[in-house]
């Protein structure tokens, strides 16, 4: 585990990584540490203003600049070691190996983010394939071998930090935020004020939500139409299918003459991706300005809606919508528990709910007939087969009778 930024750098169990950061500075700067440090100092005051003043109490400007320098060098050197291992000789803890998943996970914790301007300043000193790194991480989330990594254009969006860039890449949508929204307040305070659910995938802790939040979540759950699991939707003529793109914003319900198709991108679930998803949703909750900004949250809540039992998870796997190392039970616990099961969805999720309800109300007779046929298909096929055999026998008897 590694602390990036001011919130956890004092923890004793994370001090070993501080030595690794020093090695990262040497490897990334290639003997020109002072020139690189000057670039960070030039933006340190602006970067400091992104944090809540209380979180940096007792930290001098020089100490803050040094912290940003070491942490940014560590981040960029780790990315360099993953994307271009031949150009970076970091210790094994930062290289592709047994510790890489842990380090990469910590890089995308909401409370481990440092202002983008610091990374940008160092990237003028040494080129890093940040776009390739984010695209590789995105492929880990999607796990679609039939698709190539989507390109990322850094000129199209200026993110607040690394997690914000990953969110932009995965969601396919830019969040509108103000400088006030961007303030990196202490994670516990920020999550409490934003009603972000307590999660094992963040280091921040949260007390029980206030009654207002409990009532709001209960209202959302009550608004879900009955029979929305993967199996139940199939029974009423709604087919689940993969969306055309891998962006989380690409979810919806198409209307055909008789049937409907509910489409969404596939998802690979393991400890890494689960952590990334929770932190991207937490980032949305902290800075979302419009209802349409809750892209990742809507995507995850939609998946949660499709799962009521482990059999639903199994069906989603069979359809190619869920992959990964999580068992069916682990996936169900993730989506229905205190992680994705308590997130705030946005407009796109409610648009799907409205279309589902409209379909149920307008096509109720067709749904009843289709559901009966769907649930009794084997029995109907058996009866029709028997009727066909009996018809053949009767025809043969009639032919014999005519001959006599």
UniProtKB/TrEMBL annotation:
Keywords: Membrane, Transmembrane, Transmembrane helix
Spans through the membrane: 380-398
Domain of life: Eukaryota
Protein name: Uncharacterized protein
InterPro entries: DUF247_pln
One Pfam family hit: DUF247
């Amino acid at each position: 585990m590694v602390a990036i930024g001011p919130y956890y750098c004092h923890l004793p169990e994370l001090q070993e990584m501080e030595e690794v950061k020093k090695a990262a500075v040497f490897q990334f700067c290639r003997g020109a540490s002072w020139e690189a440090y000057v670039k960070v100092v030039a933006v340190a005051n602006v970067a400091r203003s992104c944090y809540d003043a209380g979180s940096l109490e007792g930290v001098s400007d020089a100490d803050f600049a040094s912290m940003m320098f070491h942490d940014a060098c560590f981040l960029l050197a780790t990315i360099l070691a993953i994307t271009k291992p031949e150009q970076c000789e970091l210790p094994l803890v930062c290289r592709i190996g047994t510790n890489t998943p842990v380090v990469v996970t910590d890089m995308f914790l909401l409370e481990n983010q440092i202002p983008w301007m610091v990374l940008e300043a160092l990237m003028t000193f040494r080129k890093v394939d940040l776009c390739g790194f984010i695209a590789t991480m995105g492929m880990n989330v999607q796990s679609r071998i039939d698709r190539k990594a989507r390109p990322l254009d850094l000129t199209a969006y200026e993110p607040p930090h690394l997690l914000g860039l990953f969110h932009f890449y995965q969601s396919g949508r830019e969040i509108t935020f103000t400088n006030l929204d961007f303030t990196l307040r202490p994670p516990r305070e920020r999550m409490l004020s934003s009603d972000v659910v307590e999660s094992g995938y963040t280091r921040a802790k949260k007390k029980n939500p206030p009654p207002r939040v409990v009532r709001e979540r209960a209202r959302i759950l009550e608004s879900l139409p009955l029979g929305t699991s993967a199996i139940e939707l199939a029974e009423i003529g709604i087919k689940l299918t993969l969306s055309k793109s891998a962006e989380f914003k690409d979810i919806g319900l198409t209307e055909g003459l008789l049937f409907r198709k509910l489409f969404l991108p596939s998802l690979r679930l393991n400890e890494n991706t689960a952590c990334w998803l929770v932190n991207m949703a937490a980032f949305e909750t902290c800075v979302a300005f419009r209802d349409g900004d809750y892209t990742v949250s809507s995507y995850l809540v939609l998946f949660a809606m499709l799962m009521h039992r482990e059999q639903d998870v199994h069906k989603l796997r069979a359809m190619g919508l869920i992959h990964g190392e999580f068992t069916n039970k682990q996936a169900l616990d993730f989506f229905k528990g205190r992680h994705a099961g308590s997130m705030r969805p946005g407009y796109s999720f409610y648009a799907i709910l409205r279309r589902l309800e409209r379909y149920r109300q307008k096509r109720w007779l067709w749904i009843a007939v289709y559901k009966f046929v769907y649930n009794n298909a084997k029995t109907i096929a058996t009866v029709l087969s028997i009727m066909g055999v009996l018809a053949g026998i009767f025809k043969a008897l009639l032919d014999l009778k005519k001959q006599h």
